[in-house]
């Protein structure tokens, strides 16, 4: 699942607006909330996993959307990496759990995500300036990198991690691509890969004048590894 909307797929959603978001049920038990950054859901066995939580503004919209199709508790929230448009919408998911009387979902991420959050907190002004240059007014506030937006992972891993979703295996794999703290999620029973920004709707952003050079070779190797799993 791409973390950015596939242009053909997302644009076919009636009235799709990437800044508002829209849920697509891909098949029973698998859904994606399309937005500026996507949120992937796997459910249907009594509990749900959520891969990415979108941004601070979009997280609540993603929660509202998935609650139209499933009432299952959120078992795990998994960050594919520590960028703000993927990991800063967590509060809405935790609030939903508390409101419904569910257990607080466990947040999983690669061990380097917490360090990224710390770096963002220390460089708020600079981060906002760089994003303003690249993206424009929507990113023109220091509030985007406010530490209040950070929900640190409860649990971290280094290379691989195996989880259990009501008896169904879930695998977390470390990767380097757009970031060095990336995770892709593999659910072998469903042959489902949820990959964050390892696949986007444009050419891979392996660097630009405003950002450091990224991990081009490792990115390609990761995509080969995902392809070798033959996801459906």
Which secondary structure elements does this structure contain, and how are they paired or packed?
Elements: H1 7-11, E1 22-27, E2 30-34, E3 39-42, E4 48-51, H2 59-66, E5 74-78, H3 84-87, H4 90-100, E6 106-110, H5 113-122, H6 124-135, E7 155-157, E8 160-165, E9 168-175, E10 182-187, E11 192-194, H7 216-228
Parallel strand pairs: 4-5, 5-6, 6-7
Antiparallel strand pairs: 1-2, 2-3, 3-4, 8-9, 9-10, 10-11
Molecular structure report:
By secondary structure, this protein is α/β, with parallel strands linked by helices. The protein has a single domain (7-228), classed as Metallo-beta-lactamase domain (Metallo-beta-lactamase, Chain A). It contains 7 helices and 11 strands. The strands form 2 sheets. Strands 1-2-3-4-5-6-7 form a 7-stranded mixed sheet, covered by helices on one side. A 4-stranded antiparallel sheet has the order 8-9-10-11. The protein is globular, with a radius of gyration of 17 Å. The N and C termini lie close together (10 Å). Residues 1-11 have low confidence and may be disordered.
Order of helices and strands: HEEEEHEHHEHHEEEEEH
Q: How many structural domains?
A: 1
Number of helices: 7
Structural class, judged by helices and strands? alpha/beta
In total, how many beta strands?
Answer: 11
Beta content: 15-25%
Task: From the 3D structure, determine the CATH topology.
Answer: Metallo-beta-lactamase, Chain A
Average pLDDT confidence is: 88
